[in-house]
Amino acid sequence: MFSNIGSGEILIVVLVLFFLFGGKKLPELARGLGESGKELKKAKKEIENALSDINTEEKDQKKITPSREGSEEGGEPT
């Protein structure tokens, strides 16, 4: 995605950010971006775990549910 960006373009972006926000705000912005990235990873992991639990419960439920093939044919109950 960013393979066409060279060091000159990165330097220009950093300088623009420095002029817009100042030297004191840049560390705070970077810290905020890092924390939001951690939160996204945490939420993603929680969703994956929830989906995994649901899939496991469905598989377990299918194993527990008996088939009704023999009971509807009029055979003797066992």
Quick rundown:
The protein has one helix spanning about 5-65. With about 80 residues, the chain is mainly α. The protein is elongated.
Protein model, in words:
- The chain is mainly alpha-helical and 78 residues long.
- Helices cover 74% and strands 0% of the residues.
- The protein has a domain at 30-59.
- It has one helix spanning 7-64.
- The protein starts with 6 loop residues before the first helix and ends in a 14-residue tail after the last helix.
- The mean pLDDT is 81.
Low-confidence stretches: none
What fraction, in percent, of the residue positions are helical? Answer: over 70%
Shape: elongated
Give the class from helix and strand content and strand pairing: mainly alpha
Based on the model shown, name its key terms.
78 residues, mainly alpha, 74% helix, elongated
Secondary structure blueprint with pairings:
Layout (H helix, E strand, L loop, with lengths): L6 H58 L14
